[in-house]
Amino acid sequence: MWLEMLITNAEVYQVGLYDLRIDGSIIVEMGRLQPLHGEPVVDAAGGALLPGLTDHHIHFLSYAASLSSIDCSPSKVANGIQLAELLRQTPGDTWLRGFGYHESVAGDIDRHWIDQCCDHRPVRIQHRTGRLWIYNSAAIEQLKLAMEQQNSNHPLTTSSLESGRFYDADQSLGDLLGRHLPPVAEASRRLAAFGITAFSDMTPSNDQETFSLFKRLRQQNNLLQHVQLARNKPFTQTNPTDSVMPGPVKIHLHESRLPALQDLVDRITLSHEHGVAVAIHAVTEIEMLFSITALEDAGTIQGDRIEHASVTPDYLLEKIKALDLTVVTQPQFIFGKGDTYRQDVAADSLPHLYRCAAFVNSGIALAGSSDAPFGCPDPWSSMRAAVTRRTSSGHVLTGDEVLSPEQALALYLGGLHSPGKFRQLEVGATADLCLLDRPWLLARRTLHSDHVKLVFNQGTPVYQKQDCISLQYQKAQPTL
Ligand SMILES: [Zn+2]
């Protein structure tokens, strides 16, 4: 950590042109400031200085794993022929992991399908929902071997082992094959380059072990962001740190097998009794209605949130507002998956898909996120989607849901504990900063991560744009 530093000529977002002095991790002065003797100085040259961005819903370890995997999503492989080609041509003979698969590429593929294109190495492909893995025969052989060696009774069904299709079996598969730490430092660096200084990991299986892992990563400087971890139950987090904090209890609903309503009410109540908010994954209208009915029954506390809220008709907006829930959405899905939605989603649901303006206009706290690796991790790409509502083929989806660039940016300016609340840069605030290479008036036209020039986490630089020659830290000369 640098002890003291001066940033000059910064267009502090929505405040004005200022110099800022940072002492340790805190902004201690703002105004027209003279450098102190020997103080490092960064000339922001009029660039916009934003609070560091927050990704409010990511699956960080899966995202890191995706960096050493192949992208099997419809945006990368249009059909089965292209997917087969990709599997055949990826070099190596060790495990190959694919992610982002959707049936629009080649239907409900199974082990035999993958065997036809790649049978010389173990292959596993994850469906883009994250719920389904498809293994080839070589991969299943490894699974069977592990089952024999561990003499274990894992709940993998015979039909799954025959087809190679495993639903909601992450825990068992991980127990059998072991979990290897993916390239987390690289993943964290990439997020920093987007200006992200904090994220909420919303993986439903997070437990005490995950906490220890993230704390270790942070201590080893492999993690450049503040982290909030959603958890599987409201266990007591004994030793929270400033940088790795416990978050809400994540509840994952599936329309095809919803629990009894009272069970969900009880789960929410238990969490609230521990003073822990809940974050409910609700994608379909039925899941939304079910979650909201349970929350009406159980009552809400500050911090309760709905993840995705993918289909939200008007009558649900009123209920969400009345319950004071925060909605955490992913505008980037409009761009990344919008063309598939146009084909797959029922016509009467399309106007209610990944709404933005409707939430804002209803006074509902709205926050943005990537859901990476299931969505693109770049928040700027998401902001563009929120402003244009364009799919990757250029179609506009629900144009009346557009946000202004400022509203789109605000989705990423909330804190980990108050995702919908804009953090202002001011004296006393933590120096989590994202400096752009141009004033906001220009940056708002393109909303592009290329404009991110320098990023600080708690006063420490965590990213600096490579080709940015104007950015030299200068030791101030003694003032006379
Ligand atoms: Zn998610």
Task: Report what the structure shows.
By secondary structure, the protein is of the alpha/beta class. The protein folds into three domains: 4-51 and 432-475, Urease, subunit C, domain 1; 55-60 and 183-410, Alpha-Beta Barrel (TIM Barrel), CATH 3.20.20; 69-177, Diaminopimelate Epimerase, Chain A, domain 1, CATH 3.10.310. Helix content is 32%, strand content 23%. It contains 17 helices and 22 strands. The protein has helices at 60-66, 80-89, 103-106, 111-117, 137-150, 158-163, 170-177, 184-193, 208-219, 261-273, 285-298, 314-323, 332-344, 357-361, 379-388, 405-410, 440-446; strands at residues 4-12, 16-23, 26-31, 40-43, 48-51, 53-58, 70-71, 96-101, 123-127, 132-135, 165-167, 196-201, 226-231, 244-252, 278-282, 305-308, 326-329, 365-368, 433-436, 452-457, 460-464, 474-475. Strands 1, 2, 3, 4, 5, 19, 20, 21 and 22 form a nine-stranded mixed β-sheet that branches. An eight-stranded parallel β-sheet has the order 6-12-13-14-15-16-17-18. The longest helix is centred in the first third of the chain and has 14 residues, at 137-150. It is globular and about 70 Å long. The protein starts with a strand and ends in a 5-residue tail after the last strand. The model is unreliable at 469-480 (pLDDT under 50). The structure holds zinc ion (ZN). Zinc ion is lined by residues 57, 59, 202, 371.
